[in-house]
Amino acid sequence: MERIIENRLQLKKRVLVVDDEFINRRLLEKIISEKYEVLQASDGAEALEIIKENRNTLSLILLDLLMPKLNGYELMEILKEDETMNRIPIIVLTSEKEAEVETLNMGAADFIQKPYDVPEVILARINRIIRLYDSINILNATQTDQLTGLFNKDYFIEYVGVIDKYYPERAMDAVAVNISRFHILNEMNGRAFGNEVLKALSDAIRNCVSERQGIACRNSADRFYLYITHVDDAEALRHSLAAGISSLVKDADSRINIGIYPNAQTNPDAPKRFDCALLACNSLRSDYKSFVAFYDAEMYKKETFAERLVSDFDEAIREKQFIIHYQPKFDVTGDTPYLASAEALVRWKHPELGMISLGLFIPFFEENGLIQRLDRYVWQEVSNQIACWKKKYGFSVPVSVNVSRVDIMNPGLVKEIEGIVEEAGITPNDLYLEITESAYAEDSDRVVEAAGKLRSLGYKIEMDDFGTGYSSLNTLAVLPIDVLKLDIDFIKHLHTSPKSLRLIELVVDIARFLGASVVVEGVENSEQYNTLKNTGVNIIQGYYFSVPVDSEGFADFILERIAYDNRQKA
Ligand code: C2E
Ligand code: CA
Ligand code: CA
After folding, report:
1. N or C: which end of the chain has fewer CB within 10 A?
2. What CATH number does domain 153-295 carry, 3.30.930.10, 3.40.50.720, 3.40.1190.20, 3.30.70.270?
3. Neighbouring residues of the ion ligand 3, judged by CB less than 5 Å
4. Which of 317, 401, 402 for mutating ligand 1's site (highest number of atoms within 8 Å of CB)?
5. How many whole angstroms separate alpha carbon 93 and alpha carbon 111?
């Protein structure tokens, strides 16, 4: 690498002249010193010291053969064995014809005849060898990835072709390895830390491929490809890779995802094998519980759909294809339920694909950061809509917006929300923020800090999907939250599992203790509604009251609430 940088800076290249006769060193120095920086050694041992010290900057060694201490042959033997020094070309200085052949066989790049007669010829030979080796070294440098020392993708694919040729019968797997939520690791701990993690994983990968007679490369940031003899125990493979980063990353084992395309050698298109492995690997993004996936055709269809959505995203924002639906939340603590607030849920009104619910794609959008732009858009639209209702009806209910785990990692989050609310001319009481429980589990310090700040500004914080993220009771007690929102799964099992009801009652107790209220979502029928009403739950959201509706539809709920208020007053 130094060499490439050197070339760019056009530094004078360094040449070492090794000869025990002073006059010979002087002569060569005279010939080349205008173009090169010349170092000198008067025997093999001294030369070796100088080479070791300058191994990264030496462009050429001009080597006499017959010298005291360490002769030229011996020095060449030593250099040949050392990987950091054997890339420096050697031109042998000799007067014996037989020596030429022998040294060329030992790896010398060229030779120059003594006595030195035509200076121009000598200089030209030296120039040529230096140029040649520079290009070889540049080629080598581009074969491997600088950070990890693994092959780069192009070279890797070429190598796969070689394996195919020599071992056509061997069953091989194409494997894609990915560190999930790597960008969050990076953002939280800095790039230097991220690099350490990548290097540690690469070391583990290197071990793995050498055990399984394969090769590996880094494809991009945190994505690696392996081509190895067929694995029976994919979990074991995954564990051995995760172990490589476990000293740096505490939840290492749940962060290494692998996608496998088994018996990949049967597919003649080598690059495609790894596209398939990557597809399998990416399919794990939306799944926080599995970590190994195998490629199949169904997968291919789904992924191409997701990719299509990602590529259509910019246009969708520009052309306002994202539509906000509002699902009412009803207060059920009194005799008559009444509209208390709403949740904003985004839909994509795609010009060709029709209405798309984003639930399935949120993980993709989290992975590539698009979710931040989408959420900002949603917050703006919702804030403007609230302002509009306030103006029209002199009244509005608060609306909850979803805050993704990626938003939480954004240090500018609080300022951004403040800016949006101010610009729309509404107040923090008008907006509730739903943060999923798994975000708390991932980085509770960060969430506590951001949520605490927002709460002190007057925003209500709701913990979404409560019951899925394994918060301990200890951490719950110190979390800055106003609302616990039960995960939709609780309600699904309400009438099949007696435990579910008992759990809901427990959550109500915990919430009371925390001074928070309880929202249950996904309530679809009167049976569920009636059961819940007696548990102390405060708010109910679900198809029982209404599916999510567009802003016009929701205006009817606001009018109804105004009428309800008037009835109460009368
Ligand atoms: P969530 O926040 O847990 O939202 C609740 C989901 O349950 C919504 O699905 C809603 O339509 C659905 N739902 C409501 N009532 C019922 C019911 O009675 N029965 C059943 N079976 N389902 C019900 P949706 O709109 O497809 O959203 C799915 C997920 O997508 C949301 O889960 C949320 O995590 C995410 N999401 C939606 N909009 C946004 C957004 O603007 N930003 C972010 N970051 N995430 C969003
Ligand atoms: Ca939500
Ligand atoms: Ca939820």
Report:
1. C
2. 3.30.70.270
3. 464-465
4. 402
5. 6
Residue 187 has pLDDT above 50, yes or no: yes
- Contact residues of ligand 1, CB 6 A cut-off: 327, 345-346, 357-359, 362, 371, 375, 378, 402, 404, 464-465, 488, 521-524, 542-543, 548
Q: What is the pLDDT of residues 30-65, one digit of tens each?
A: 999 999 999 999 999 999 999 999 887 899 999 999
**Range with lowest mean pLDDT among 122-131, 324-333, 338-347, 557-566:** 122-131
Every domain range in the chain assigned CATH 3.20.20.450: 317-569
DSSP codes of every residue in 31-96: HHTTTSEEEEESSHHHHHHHHHHTTTTEEEEEEESS-SSS-HHHHHHHHHH-TTTTTS-EEEEES-
Which pLDDT belongs to residue 360? Answer: 74
Considering the chain, tell me which residue range(s) the CATH 3.30.70.270 domain(s) occupy.
153-295
Shortest-distance atom of ligand 1 to CA 327:
14
Residue 286 has what pLDDT?
Answer: 66
Half-sphere exposure of 422 (CA within 13 A, CB side): 7
Reply yes or no on whether the pLDDT at 8 is more than 80.
Answer: no
CA-to-CA dists, residue 499 to 234, 496, 505, angstroms: 35, 9, 10
Domain 317-569 fold = TIM Barrel (3.20.20)
Identify the H or E element spanning 227.
strand 223-229
Fold of 2-143: Rossmann fold (3.40.50)
Rounded to the nearest whole angstrom, what is the distance from the C-alpha of residue 153 to the centroid of ligand 3?
40
Percent helix / strand / coil, the chain, rounded to 5: 55, 20, 25
| Res 472: pLDDT | 65
Query: What is residue 393's three-state secondary structure?
Result: helix
Nearest CA, atom 32, ligand 1: 359
Q: Could you tell me where in the chain the CATH 3.40.50.2300 domains are found?
A: 2-143
pLDDT at position 6: 42
* Gap from CA of 522 to ligand 1 centroid (Å): 9
- Tell me the pLDDT of the chain averaged across its residues: 89
Ligand 1 atom closest to the Cα of residue 325 is 25
Atom 11 (ligand 1): residue with closest C-alpha?
Answer: 548
Q: Does residue 139 register a pLDDT over 70?
A: no
Q: Whose CA is nearest to atom 46 of ligand 1?
A: 402
Please answer whether residues 229 and 170 qualify as being in contact, where contact means their C-beta atoms are separated by less than 8 angstroms: yes
Predicted confidence at residue 417, as pLDDT, reads 97
